[in-house]
Amino acid sequence: MKILHAAETIKGGVATVMRTLALAQSDENTVRCLIPADQAKELAPFRNLRTFTRTGRNPLSFLSFSWNLAKTVVTFRPHVVHLHSTFAGVFGRIVLALLWPVVRPKVIYMPHAWAFIMDGSPRKKNLYAAVEKLLYPFTSKVVCVSKFESDEATRFGLPNHKTVIVYNGTPTITAEEIPNPYNPKRLNLLFAGRLDFQKGFDVMLDAMERLASNPDAAHIHLTVVGEGVHGKASQPERPNITYMGWLGTDKLFPFYAHADAVVMPSRWEGFAMVPLEAMSHGVPVVASNVCSLPEVVIPNQTGLLFSVANSTELADLLLNTPKTQWKTMGQNAKALHAQKFAVDKMVEEINKVYGATHGK
Asked: What is the SS3 string spanning the chain?
């Protein structure tokens, strides 16, 4: 089978999912990925890439994506085109509809968080949902990455007969000696991802500012791995925060392995990879109580939940949770990951989706 994965931008969880699928599927299929040229390293070691020029979310970049998708589909002739995230889903399905007389691949669309679950006015949300409804006939299957995402699609009026739920997955990490990048005398927190409004980085900063003024919180330190993607992010210098920028998978590995907790104060999520990566290392997750995150974080078992955008509540949880409890929750998190969120399970379920559509 020929498979083409395409995305308008991939930094963050989309890159992890695409890289995982592309590498696993390459054993028995011919796989290519269409991604921005400046993000090619995000898919390493996968190398069968087609790239386009992207300078941001603007008309020229969208045109570049669309033109290169059309060229790749016509020359590669894939059996399946797997579109990742909203903008690739919109422009990609328009391109494939126009190409219908020439080539007719099956179209798999994975929103990675519907646009209409973002913070915004009801008018905007209904507009996003209307666009999705218009493009639905040009979609073979919609892959939702959580029950929440599937339920929201139904709530906004999208037909559910093409929808399947496939939880994201990450590799199970085996125990080995990995150098510790942290000061072991601290409670080491990790924030990994885009430093933007969706991910609640401003909430994280507020919580760390509150802790900085509390003498009892002198041992709490945050390491930030990531940068702003959709605009320049504020990165104030503080003694209890260390900024690492974007790190490749290998360099990020030790930060996950030795963290006491991973913090995810998102305002909305489809189904984030960061909690799964933390759990695979046996690290508990502190997350906002929104969207799909309660499907992963079980309070006081695999981590802790707090009210969305409530930096005071977050700071209190970080200050008042005993270190022994972090360790116990981490052990529980690793067990749940192996049971429910292993990467092999995700790949198997996605391949079943392809198989169900291919040949119809």
From this structure: CEEEEEECCCCCHHHHHHHHHHHHHCCCCEEEEEEEHHHHHHHCCCCCEEEECCCCCCHHHHHHHHHHHHHHHHHHCCCEEEEECHHHHHHHHHHHHHCCCCCCCEEEEECCCCHHHCCCCHHHHHHHHHHHHHHHHHCCEEEECCHHHHHHHHHCCCCCCCEEECCCCECCCCCCCCCCCCCCCCEEEEEECCCCCCCCHHHHHHHHHHHHCCHHHCCEEEEEECCCCCCCCCCCCCCCEEEEECCCHHHHHHHHHHCCEEEECCCCCCCCCHHHHHHHCCCCEEEECCCCHHHCCCECCCEEEECCCCHHHHHHHHHHCCHHHHHHHHHHHHHHHHHHCEHHHHHHHHHHHHHHHCCC
